[in-house]
Specification:
Farnesyl Diphosphate Synthase; mainly alpha; 3% strand; single chain; 15 helices; two-stranded antiparallel ribbon
């Protein structure tokens, strides 16, 4: 495994399970994706992250990304989310509003419900895999905002989400515990980085507000669907977090050369997310009559094919996007047209996309009963247990 110092093995967050949604795995090697490897740059470029080698960990890896990365400070993120959720529980239910189903009122209990532990685990895993170079302070902040996104289910909304907006910098109701908590969350971000912190909040709010609109049912084609799906997966929030944790604040002119790379990564994240969550969402559609906005489902209906064929098509699209990502990265590096900050953002975007693959491959939330417990005989994870004990 590509953890080059034995002392770093304890920093690897435990993998609970793996999940393969029926893919025939055979990704090709693409050299410019080696920027994910620890030996590709200097040690200072990977101050806060570890390399995860999927072949060494024997993961069912579907991608031509040779590795993903993980933030070392996952325990900080986990502890921050636990403390935050307990603060939410401590607010009077009549003030904070109804929590999502499964997150029962437990203001006097130390134990968290199974759904609460799962929500924290999902938020932390997504945050640390998709933002691997975050400091302990910044990953703790981002993980709490990821948790807010996980807790939001579009129907049962507690009022903390409603009051987190830019006007919390001048709170109108300082006696409200909900307002005080939301104000502190916002202040943490802006004290760390005012401009980038506001981008994170704007991204989350944009996503939350979009979920309150009636879902679209008709699309002019796949591109139109992906553009709509990008809002539904909170892509503005995701990339705002990437910029925040890496202290990347580019002007419009500075960001423009990277637009194609970012848009390709966005579509890659959507397709991977939808491929791995498809079975879960199809089951929810049938058992709960839930709304489904999923690319595999869209392809299934559009092309009048079975689920297996739709998943195969989505996987082919993922592989094609990886080729396009690699070519765009090769072009940017060959032309040497990027300055240091722009290249750092390009690398961070690839890290984010690879991290989304890692999250999906190890997601019990997606795999459910099809998820396989992860117990490699030589796993270094025994040295680093999560207090969530899922």
């Amino acid at each position: 495994m590509a953890l080059h110092r034995e002392t770093e093995t304890a920093l690897l967050k435990p993998i609970i399970c793996t999940y393969n949604p029926g893919l025939v795995l055979g990704p090709r090697a693409l050299e410019y994706f080696n920027i994910l490897r620890s030996d590709s740059l200097t040690a200072s470029d990977f101050k806060h992250s570890l390399e995860i080698d999927p072949s060494s960990l024997r993961l069912p890896w579907p991608s031509s990304f040779p590795a993903s990365r993980q933030c070392k400070h996952w325990r900080d993120a986990e502890n921050a989310c636990i403390s935050f959720l307990k603060e939410v529980y401590a607010i009077d239910p009549s003030e904070r509003g109804k929590l999502p189903d499964g997150l029962s009122d437990q203001s006097t209990e130390l134990a968290l419900s199974q759904r609460a532990r799962s929500a924290i685990s999902n938020a932390v895993n997504a945050a640390i895999y998709m933002n691997p170079e975050a400091s302990g302070t910044r990953i703790s902040m981002v993980a709490k905002f990821y948790l807010l996104a996980w807790l939001h289910d579009g129907q049962s909304l507690f009022r903390l989400i409603d009051v987190i907006s830019l006007d919390v910098f001048e709170p109108q109701n300082t006696v409200s515990a909900t307002h005080r908590l939301s104000f502190r969350l916002a202040q943490e971000l802006t004290s760390e980085d005012d401009a980038l912190g506001q981008q994170v909040m704007k991204g989350l709010l944009s996503y939350i507000h979009s979920t309150r609109d009636q879902p679209r049912q008709e699309f002019s084609g796949l591109k139109d669907f992906l553009d709509y799906r990008a809002i539904d997966i909170a892509s503005d929030f995701v990339f705002a977090c990437v910029r925040f944790v890496n202290s990347i604040n580019l002007s419009s002119a500075g960001a423009e050369p990277l637009d194609k790379l970012v848009n390709l990564a966005r579509d890659h994240i959507i397709l991977v997310n939808d491929l791995y969550s498809f079975e879960k969402e199809e089951n929810d559609l049938q058992s709960k009559n839930a709304t489904i906005i999923n690319t595999v489902h869209y392809l299934k209906l559009l092309l009048s094919v079975e689920s297996k064929a739709a998943k195969d098509i989505a996987y082919c699209l993922i592989q094609d996007i990886e080729l396009q990502l690699h070519e765009e990265l090769r072009k940017l590096r060959t032309l040497r047209s990027l300055d240091k900050t722009q290249f750092r953002y390009a690398r961070a975007v690839i890290e984010c996309a690879a991290g989304n693959v890692m999250y999906s491959v190890t997601s019990k939330r997606y795999g459910r009963k099809a998820a396989i417990p992860y117990k490699p005989s030589d796993s270094p994870q025994r040295q680093g247990a999560s207090i969530l004990a899922l």
